[in-house]
Amino acid sequence: MYAFLLTISIGAAAGYAFYRLKVPGGMMVGSIVAISLFNVATGMAYTPPAVKVIAQIIAGAFIGVGVERSDLKRIKHIIKPAGVLLFGMLLLNISVGYIIYKLSPLDLITSLMSAVPGGMSDTPIISAEMGADASKVTVMQFLRLVTGIGLFPSMIARLARNREEAATEDEVYVREKTQSDSPKAFVVTLSVAMVCGTIGKLLGVTAGTIVFSMISVIGLKLLYGNVSMPRYMKSIAQILAGAYIGSSVGYSDIVEMKYLILPAIILIMGYSLACVIIGKLLHRHFNMSLKEGMLSATPAGASDMALIASDIGVMSADVIVLQIIRMVVVISIFPQIISLIVRVVGG
User: Fold this and answer.
1) Measured at the alpha carbon of residue 245, what is the angle toward residues 95 and 257, in degrees to the nearest 5?
2) Segment holding 284, helix H or strand E
3) Residue 52 maps to a domain
4) Rounded distance, CA 28 to CA 14, Å?
5) CA-angle at 78, arms to 279 and 336, nearest 5°
6) Given pLDDT bands bounded at 50, 70 and 90, which one contains residue 215?
7) Residues 300, 311: contact at Cβ < 8 Å?
8) Containing domain of residue 338, as a range?
9) What whole-number distance in Å separates Cα of residue 99 and Cα of residue 92?
C-alpha cells in the first residue's frame, strides 16, 4: 500500500506540474515521466491491476458525457462525410502502422496502436490491455496530439487562405451542450459506468471496459439527459493511467525510445498527408469549407478543435461533432479491427 500511495503521489504532483506548464495531455504525460524515472531509479513504483480498470471506466464515462442529443440529430446531415472520415482514418491507421512495423523494431500491435487516431487519455491504456508496449504508444500518441494542436492549424490556415467564403449565420450549426452539476447525477453516472465497464471487462471484449463504460453513459444521457462527469475526474483517470504505464517502464524501455525517431516521422507525415487528402475530399464532395474538412481530419481532440476552429474562423460545430464521432468509433471499433489483424497476420 505504501508503494502504491507513493507512486500515485509522485504521479499526481508531476502531472499537475506538467498541466500548469500547459503541456498537451500534461496530467498523463507528467505522471508517466515521473513514475517511469522513479521506477528506473528505485524499482519501487507499483500500481495494482484494478487501477487500469478504474482509469478505463472513468475515461469511457468522460467520453460518453461529451455526446449530446443534438449531435445525434445532426448525424443525418453529416453521415456521409463521417463515413469518408472514418474510412480514411482506418486506412491511415492500418497503412501507417504497418509501415512502422516493417521499418522499425516495434512489434505489430504496438505499431498499429501507435497510429490509432484516438485520444491521449484512452489509447495508451487500451494498448496496455491489448499487450502492446504502452510506453511507446504513449510517446507516439503525445507526438500526434502535439502535432495536431501545434502544427496543423497553421498548415490549414495557410492552405485554405483565400479559398472559401465565411459561412452565413443560417448555415452554422451550434451544439446544444447539456451536463448536470448535480452530485446525484455524478454518482449515478459513475455507478452506471462502473457496472457496465466491469461487465465489458468480464466479457473479455477487446477494450471492453472503456467501450462498455462509454456506451452505457451515452445511453444514460440520451435516455435521461441528467449525467455528470466533472473535469477533475478526467485528471484522475490520466494520473491513474500514467501511474499504471509508468510502473511498467524499466531502463531498457527508456533506452529503446531512440527507436521511435523513424516511427514518429512516419506518423507525422502520414497524418499530415491524410489531413490534406481527407480534408479536400470533404470539401469537394460534401459542401464543407476546406478549413472545416481539414480540421475534421486533424488528429486532435474535440475540445481542442472547438478552440482551434474559432481561432482560424470556423464557426460551425460540425467539426466538433465529426471529431466526437471519430473518437467514439475509434475507441469502440478500431481496437477490435487491430486485434483481428494481429491474430491473422501475427507479430
Assistant:
1) 55
2) helix 261-285
3) no
4) 9
5) 80
6) very high
7) no
8) 68-229+260-345
9) 10
Residue 341, phi-psi category: left (phi > 0), alpha (psi -120 to 50), beta (remainder):
alpha
Q: Residue 323 above 70 pLDDT?
A: yes
Q: Report yes or no: 30 and 18 within 8 Å, Cβ to Cβ.
A: yes
**Grid coordinates in use for 217?**
453513459
CA distance 116 to 268: 12
- On whether residue 127 sits in a domain, the answer given is yes
Domain count, the chain: 1
Q: Identify whether the C-beta of residue 322 lies closer than 8 Å to the C-beta of residue 296.
A: yes
Decide: helix, strand or coil at residue 347.
coil
**Rounded Cα–Cα distance for residues 196 and 215 (Å):** 9
Residue keyed to cell 465489458: 200
CB atoms within 10 A of CB 89: 23
In the numeric block, the cell 471484449 is attached to 205
- Please count the CA atoms within 13 angstroms of the CA of 333 that sit on its side-chain side: 12
Instruction: For the beta carbon of residue 154, count every other beta carbon within 10 angstroms.
Output: 10
Read off the pLDDT of residues 162-190 as tens digits, 9 standing for 90 and up.
Answer: 655 444 444 556 666 666 778 889 999 99
CA angle 82, 111, 248 (to 5 degrees): 115
- In angstroms, rounded to a whole number, what is the distance separating the alpha carbons of residues 77 and 258? 45
Task: Give the residue among 157, 86, 169 at the shortest CA–CA distance from 311.
Answer: 157
In a domain, residue 161? The reply is yes
